[in-house]
Amino acid sequence: MVQVNGNYLKLKAGYLFPEIARRVKAFSEANPEAAIIRLGIGDVTEPLPEACRTAMKAAIDAMGTREGFHGYGPEQGYPWLREAIAAHDFQARGCDISAEEIFVSDGSKCDSSNILDILGEGNRIAVTDPVYPVYVDSNVMAGRTGEADASGQYGGLTYLPINAENGFTAQIPTEPVDLIYLCFPNNPTGAVASRAQLEAWVDYARAHDALILFDAAYEAFIQDPSLPHSIYEIEGARECAIEFRSFSKNAGFTGTRCALTVVPRGLKGTAANGEKVELWALWNRRQSTKFNGVSYIVQRGAEAVYSPEGQAQVKALIGFYMENAAIIRRELSAAGLQVYGGEQAPYVWLRTPQGLDSWGFFDHLLGRAHVVGTPGSGFGAAGEGYFRLSAFNSRANVEEAMRRIRAL
Ligand code: MLT
């Protein structure tokens, strides 16, 4: 009989967001009259920017002609999109990143999991706690962890707690690790890293020959102009970091699918025989073997993000969601809740009211206010006692959700 990947059997429960969807579905079936407002999963709600839609429509029309038809594209992405990304997202911010170091893909979630394909099994891995669950679960699936303990933490992983006491910034580990997952602006806490904090991580990684996997999916939400958007704004990061970026949250591509991963040339890991191997070459090999690229139409849509109209429309979208975040922060504070984040990120992180744990508060909000959020404990043991609300929704829904929570 065929054998299954036993690592999957180590996974604690369902993936967080499907588990929330399951509970909400059950509640809504039992209470069909309840008008549920979803501030749980960080999924965008506002229409795609016009510049992107116009570019995609033109691409569809081109596909209807013999001259403009596109079959398989380059697995790494079309050169014109890679050039635009390198120029606008990196070189314009002083980062020494070239187009060939940009790999266009269909999502940061996929890339942050798939990257394990090119990394060895013996790496000592550090994650923050709480953390975006994909980093942990993909390591479990790939057999890079031991079993979970009663608190849900997996053997073999180094957990770096982030909480109100340390300003939601993980301390540099005292033990040596080889692989470090960082996400700034942070999902789920909404915290952001200062330049000095990122410098400390880059210094650590260079001193220990470690690799930083830097998830910058929410960089566009940074409001403070002094804060870095990319790990490559830090000197030396080319030697120790891979960065993930996405069009999902800035340009509303969650359902359209386009993202990118930056793997600098010259960034190396070690083979079992001690030989130094370039990660770019391995990722290029991986992508050209297992991936056929993002559709031409979608890449044309992503390219339009960098046009002057696209830039203005994306800015307006971000401004809209950040105004939602400000409303959530203001109303929850007025309701007496302790709130964090939501100033440089589309997530507001709050302490659950006394007497309620994370899932208890989830049930309370769903049952009494018909508002869905995300329990902090779903992001890790140290998220217990916290709760996440997403700013991705219409203004009317955010205002109504806050009115209901205040009434509670
Ligand atoms: C979240 O709610 O944390 C997001 O949906 C994560 C993601 O983009 O996968």
Offer a few descriptive terms:
408 residues, alpha/beta, Aspartate Aminotransferase, domain 1, Aspartate Aminotransferase, domain 2, 2 domains, seven-stranded mixed sheet, four-stranded antiparallel sheet, 15 strands, 14% strand, binds D-malate
Structure, described:
Helix 2 runs antiparallel to helix 8 (296-303). This protein is globular. The chain has eleven helices and 15 strands. Helices cover 35% and strands 14% of the residues. The protein folds into two domains: 6-47 and 309-407, Aspartate Aminotransferase, domain 1 (Alpha-Beta Complex), CATH 3.90.1150.10; 53-307, Type I PLP-dependent aspartate aminotransferase-like (Major domain) (Aspartate Aminotransferase, domain 2, 3-Layer(aba) Sandwich), CATH 3.40.640. Strand 9 and strand 10 form a beta hairpin. The protein has a seven-stranded mixed β-sheet with strand order 2-8-7-6-5-3-4, with helices on both faces. A four-stranded antiparallel β-sheet has the order 11-12-15-14. The mean pLDDT is 96. It has helices spanning 16-30, 50-63, 79-90, 108-114, 133-141, 195-208, 279-290, 296-303, 308-334, 358-369, 395-407; strands spanning 37-38, 102-105, 125-129, 157-161, 179-183, 211-215, 241-246, 259-262, 268-270, 276-278, 339-341, 347-351, 371-372, 374-375, 386-390. With 408 residues, it is α/β, with parallel strands linked by helices. Bound molecules: D-malate. D-malate (MLT) binds at residues 41-43, 109, 187.
